[in-house]
Amino acid sequence: MNTSTTTPSTVNGLDTESMRKKVAAIQADPALAMTRWNVTTRWMGGARSDTKVASCEIGGQRVTKDFTIRVDEPLELFGTNQFANPQEVLMAALNACLVYGYAANFALQGIALKELSIETRGDIDVRGFLGLDDSVKAGYEDLALTVHVKADATPAQIERVHDTVTRTSPNVFNLSQPIRLRSRLVTS
Fold first, then answer.
1. Domains of the chain (ranges plus CATH)?
2. Residues 40-90: tens digit of each pLDDT
3. Distance, CA of 90 to CA of 99 (rounded, Å)
């Protein structure tokens, strides 16, 4: 009797065979692991801004993109409430990075996801942003995430994936570790 099992090539909507080939290629040539991300944001009046995503680089190859991320503020913060505000976009970016991490890690183990959602919340005292009180931080003290997972897996398997995802997520790293921010001002 043959007890070996084959892993489906598509799990959670991801081509696991291609993912494994890409991982092997990166292990053989670390230059393929290098990525560069960039955006350009323009003020659109009031509290509105539009961010253009035109390209990125993955493994030395330019990838053309054409996306616009529109951002606004609620009426209570003098915006027009047409779009998510910067804090909601920040949380969405964190959650989206984690969602992909869960989907990919479960897929590579052949585990089908049935449901996945992440709730994130945080509190900001706008006195810091407004410069009214130097003792008040301009941003979050912390963010609280609740991950809801339903998968064809044991609780131990889900916990291992959770630990891997939170340890390896670029956006968890970016939000939880000090990173150098270089700012250059150009006037005309």
1. 14-83 (3.30.300.20), 85-177 (3.30.300.20)
2. 999 999 999 999 999 999 999 999 999 999 999 999 999 999 999 999 999
3. 14
